[in-house]
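Quick start: read one record
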Amino acid sequence: MQRVNNSFQGSILQDPHLKLLYDPPIQAGKWASNFPLSFGNLSSFLQVYICQDTYFFLLFLLSTTNQVVCINNINFQRRSVVGHVELTIFPTVANLNRIKLNSKQCRIYRVRVNDLEAAFIYNDPTLEVCHHESKQRNLNYFSNAYAAAVSAVDPDAGNGELCIKVPSELRKHVDELKVLKVHINFSLDQPKGGLHFVVPNVEGSLAERGAHVFSCGYQNSTRFWFPCVDSYSELCTWKLEYTVDATMVAVSNGDLVETVYTHDMRKKTFHYMLAIPTAASNISLAIGPFEILVDPYMHEVTHFCLPQLLPLLKHTTSYLHEVFEFYEEILTCRYPYSCFKTVFVDEAYVEVAAYASMSIFSTNLLHSAMIIDETPLTRRCLAQALAQQFFGCFISRMSWSDEWVLKGISGYIYGLWMKKTFGVNEYRHWIKEELDKIVLYELKTGGVLLHPIFGGGKEKDNPASHLHFSIKHPHTLSWEYYTMFQCKAHLVMRLIDNRISMEFMLQVFNKLLSLASTASSQKFQSHMWSQMLVSTSGFLKSISNVSGKDIQPLIKQWVDQSGVVKFYGSFAFNRKRNVLELEIKQDYTSPGTQKYVGPLKVTVQELDGSFNHTLQIEENSLKHDIPCHSKSRRNKKKKIPLMNGEEVDMDLSAMDADSPLLWIRIDPDMSVLRKVEFEQADFMWQYQLRYERDVVAQEESILALQKFPTPASRLALTDILEQEQCFYRVRIMACFCLAKIANFMVSTWTGPPAMKSLFTRMFCCKSCPNIVKTNNFMNFQSYFLQKTMPVAMALLRDVHNLCPKEVLTFILDLIKYNDNRKNKFSDNYYRAELIDALANSVTPAVSVNNEARTLDNLNPDVRLILEEITRFLNMEKLLPSYRHTITVSCLNAIRVLQKNGHVPSDPAVFKSYAEYGHFVDIRIAALEAVVDYTKVDRSYEELQWLLNMVQNDPVPYIRHKILNMLTKNPPFTKNMESPLCNEALVDQLWKLMNSGTSHDWRLRCGAVDLYFTLFGLSRPSCLPLPELGLVLNLKEKKAVLNPTIIPEVGASGPEPPNNPNNLGQIVGFQSIEDYHLTKETAAIPLPHQQGLKRKADTPLGSPLEPGQILEKTEDSKVKLKIRFSNSQEEEEIDMDTVHDSQAFISHHLNMLERPSTPGKEQSSLELMNVLPMPGPPQPTFTKESGSSKHSEHHHHHHHEHKKKKKKHKHKHKHKHKHDSKEKEKEPFTFSNSPASGRSIRSPSLSD
């Protein structure tokens, strides 16, 4: 990046399209004061970077101001879509000669710019990440190649899969910076991502069958279903048109302007307008025979569901208006869009997907008023979706490194809604749950970085060197990492709240929304739309302006670096000085940890009350003296004040006679992302459990008491179970802790089994204690406790490590006498938990004389369990429960019986339940059992069956879950010897992640996770050593990282991965009327240019730099003119080297027998014939099978080129080897482009 000279500076700033004021001049450190929030749209206009005394301009070449999307034909039987788009583009510089857009898997038929036919190239390096490295199987290599491939089509860097050449007739038009209209005709045939078709295989019309289609994907995936600039920072207004069958409804973003029927009334067109500037990534679509419900409380809100689900929809969405009111109240800002639509679809990609003015939900969230357990979960999903409407859809991000701001704010306001709706206890429990998750993940993987800042490409500068994937792009992230990323973003936003107060936080959010709202109304000043983008620096500046506080240390600690804090604490009481001597140590050398320096709150509960102390953490080991306010006076009876002001009587007989301390807590407000291991006596944990009113403190004490199996601990836990005022989640935790303590104390335990007498007293008939009362779930806390206690009791074991007969009989009686006739709520979750309890009671089988396991010689207790499971499964066939919870529990129980050796281990029953057609929860439970069987029995056959499902199952969520389950419960790991680890499996998984998952980012990253779990980062140990030839190739610098990454001519791009010395590649061109490979589109880059982003000061279309293409001199270029018989057109090609022309001729000779590619100018009649039936991708040919003519001409061309090579001396530094026999044997494959059918890649230029 070069310093901008004054003349260039002046011309830019005087440009009427930019409207930028440059007075006063920018100085180092002053950028925020000149530009309060953010300056310029990342993908259009200018972004200012200030580095010491130098200011730089990052220049992008065009700005999209409006886009029309017209889908005029959707075929459910063929799963195909036909349509066109029109983009209104403003050039921001003269000499713009190419336009780059994003488009994956679309077949492009025709491109026009201002009604002139335009040539275009399609190139997608992510289709196949690693080329021609058949022996390469290490994950480091793949991750570098994948990151380079994603960078090569990253819209935030001005790149894209589709490159359109601006017709030369428009050169003057462009130089005058006048608007361009780009019109693209395209089709989709059986899309593998982006759009998901659901067509049930039953009788009836499409509407009766509930056939529907909807957009889906991970992050910016709109490019999968129409050409666009698929960036969150490129905003424009939208006009959306969808022509569908008369029985169908099309739901999309913005306002429905009109619905127009055709003359025969068989089809209708829905016209939507979205006047608020929106990123293409936030555009969505759902088409199906939806039933429509206008929200009775808010008429601008409309809900859509599949046929016959309207009653469930009414109940599920009846609460949504209260979420609207809450968000508008706390943000003091109206909902930004004029309407909101919720669509519930089957086979959803994720449970909640938020888009501009609409959200797509899983239909599995719908429920009736009879269902208790699903209600809070669905309400949480609705609230999450609505929070993202404000921050995520309306306000978008400047770049990927600013994603944490949006996820953090939406998560933060969602948390405020949770606190108001479910109470402080539920909110604090959720915060602790989220904190525990992120701590566990970071300590396991090495850290989550919220704001990636990359150095010069060196390994030591890579902030994510501990990970097996790149964090430079969202599309290379592990799904689990991204989930934890969102979790950490919200927690950090909460830390900022702790620092500046909630009042200031909400003022900051209001300011962001107000600026964005003002900007969105500027219809004809698109440069103002940058206020609708949030950046990290702009967000921090807003905080500084509103609160006047400097939070840079906090940001540096938690945003700019990864890791959590690990505290170890212990104490001693000094009686003479009446001082608490507290010692706190940190571990900051383990993976995923960091050193914390700053304030730390410690709460000490004494006899005279609760006292807060703030310690300053500076050194690794901190010893701190805290003076006590009380003196030991245990003989005096006096009520003890608690933190919340309540005063209670305590039995102080258990405490230390010389100490006034009751309990100590470190960081009780969770104001640090930390893990705390604190040592205090068991009686202190018991006091904390009984008398501390904070649920987090109670949960911490329950976890600690597991290490103290004493009668006093048993009594404390029992007291908590009996306290109806205690939070139900704490009581649930106490159940399982009590079961563990009882098992430790089994030899000294007296009385009935733990919890049995309590359950009998609470839920059974007084006259007959073994018969449970008729169900009454009106008290939800009692309901959750009634569900949980039998599950915990089933974990009890006697001295022989068997479940006590009394407990099993008790659970069987609960099932036998369960009566739900008078209950207004469903008992399906309760019955499912009773089945889980039966499974928990199972212990390993003891075989006598190694007799075979059969159903005839079953243990009597196990036979009873199996009979109950069978009866439940049969009942489910007749009367299915909500979400088939009973079937799920039964399948889990059968697998437990198999693992414990009671029934033969056979995956057949699970495989039948895992087939497509069953409810998704059943399938996942069955697949978990098959994954477990694969691991325990080391079954290669079942592993292959699972991987086959990953490749072929119709439901994207199921494919993702299988990979996720195999990663979490792998059949083997990189450090294990296993018969399953072989070369065939390595090749299969490599192929899966390399090319088999190119249309689903999430699935590809899941395959990478699995590969890492099984084989690690380096070459799998089961593979033979690489051949010497490959090493020689590497030494000769002929290893090709990804030949399909086409570097920008006259530009540099993203940093190349560590080991490639890359060569360019010839690509197939598609144009109208004639095909030209000019110096702009056929330049062969030098090795160091492979996969490089263009420099900011070298715009697309600018004059070429020396070294990037050879000059037009007599002895540096070969000019060829070729006439092809099938097209009767001449092609004039300027070739940099004879080898380039050789590859090009070879390509065309192979193309002679192939049909011509759509893209040539066609009559309207021909276009009508072609559009509805886009052809499938062409098959892959090898050099031997697909190139009969090439072999005849090869020798002649080779000889001719050798002569030319003597005449025109070759000035490139890289070497070529013509007579390699091994190279002749390599297959020369033609990968058919979805866009043109003619995207060619060659093994390497040395061929």
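DSSP finds 36 helices and 35 strands in the chain.
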